[in-house]
Task: structure prediction
Amino acid sequence: MPQFNRTSMQYPADHFLNRELSLLQFQRRVLAQAADPTVPLLERLRFLCIVSSNLDEFFEIRVSGIKEQIRIGSRQSGEDGITPSDLLARVSDEVHEIISEQYELLNDDILPALENEGVVFLRRSLWTEAQRDWIEDYFVREVMPVLTPVGLDPAHPFPRVLNKSLNFAVELEGRDAFGRDSGAAIVQAPRALPRVIRLPREISTQEYTFVFLSSVLHAHVARLFAGMQVLGCYQFRVTRNSDLFVDEEEVKDLRASLKGELQQRHFGDAVRLEVADNCSDEMASFLLQHFHLTPSDLYRAPGIVNLVRLMQVPDWVERADLKYQAFVPGLPRGLDKRRQIFTAIRNGDILLHHPFQSFAPVIEMLRAAADDPQVLAIKMTVYRTGTDSVLMEHLARAAQKGKEVTVVLELMARFDEEANITLANRLEEVGAHVVYGVFGYKTHAKLLMVVRREEDGLRHYVHLGTGNYHPRTTRFYTDFGLMTCNKEIGEDVAAVFTQLTGLGRATELRHLWQAPFSLQPNVVAAIRREAEIARAGRRGRIITKMNALLEPETIEALYEASQAGVEVDLIIRGPCALRPGVPGLSENIRVRSVVGRFLEHHRIFHFHADGEDLVYLSSADWMDRNFFRRIEIAFPVLDPRLKRRVMKEGLRPYLGDNCQAWEMQPSGSYRRKHPRSVRRAAQLILLNELAASS
Result:
């Protein structure tokens, strides 16, 4: 299969920062939200959990990749010049520091503050007699029947431990009924059991009193080993390589092959071992040896192992005063319940800004398309949409009504593969055409097209977005969506769908920039045009916003633009390989990251272009994978009014943010902005301006 990679070029290693280390810097910025006393208390707990969830994926994908490089003996460094073995050591040191700070924050700040507010996580030593009786009864009724302790001996080898599951290593003394004295056993906590248990109000001193499943097991583990003495019981958790591999040379049916791979995901090679801090050195060494890990792969937790299990607690605690203020998303002008959606789009392009504005118009567009007898066909790309998506129900209903429904479904959307396979089955059962894009390239573009018969012929109504068709995440992620019936854009979208579902050469598109063909060359060309303008003595200006900036040729083009005198502002949420503010290299480039209540997710590219002000929105970050190994779209905002809105809402507030913004230093570290007088928080400004009410 051809790959559309850039021409291999060697750039100086000191021009680039390491992706993994930059990603860990992002985790520090998220952790800072958990430490921020101005953030509501339960939201601080949620941010703490998000860090743990992010680190899980970091080990499952990124660290496992580094380890695989080391395993095959690779000494090849990345663009930054760091070898895999050196990188692994630096990653280990950094993560150990982050986790230490995380637990210190939890134990010394957040948990005591929650207790003061009537939200308590009880340690075993503090259980009252009534609580002990209730917990013992709970263990006997709900927990013990589903546990299967495994004593370690030649007939009972170490059980297969699922990825990220809760397990206990038990040290024993004595002989069992058969005379065995192995001295060790493993107890696995089934995933069906809740990790956090709320005690009844009548036996609680506080309104919300929780105990951990791990504490319940600790207290009663001896019941599983009658006649033997429990010397120690230690929580442990293993993180495994979760990247999926499907051999494109051998695969005949992608869905079937992927199903086979998914079954093995839980049992990939171990990459991290987490243990409770009371775990004996002997047991820790035994576990490390079993999982073929080194001491640097061991992470001791001074508290509960796996903070992700606390993620649901803020939802369970009904305390509005400890959470972000609720709000109702607004609607842009031109949209109301009285006007039919297609009529509204014909009257002018519509820009949606989530989560400040509602995702409901997109759902309404698909609902109306399913019910409208004038609609002939619906085509849609799906990357992530959730397990119970109303969008998919409308698609299924449209297919049942006899409309031509085509869904380009990305089966390889990481950690959503199983949900997408289920969705594919559901859609095919009702007569929809389901295709899996182009094998070897993830379909990440966000496209929805409705073909409608009207008096003057067939008309294409399209929605293009920067984020997924996922109603839940649209409440928490910042994204733009454009609804238009512009003829040329509609023809471009139709051409992309033809590519994805059929065969043939890529056609030249009038407005859309498409990866893996034209997106990266057009981005680089636009940057270089700004450089030419600046060299001619006129104003050169670039402002972009995205999740990540890593692709070397694009970074080098930005360096050249800076040296030509172009003023460059980059708003990069996550990893950034570019070094800003280096004299002679990038003194005209500024990089900032904004981390707040909502996950910053929209991709915006603005080029001044001698006053023309080119504004593109995109599903793609400036990364190798997005440019060359994915099908992505960047689409222009042509309406001058909407172009001004993108600048006013998507860029300027973030450049002026002095509360949740972090400025990147040439070293790759970040310095948080602090307001000197007037506080300006971009997300709060947009909530106040765009939301219907709060």
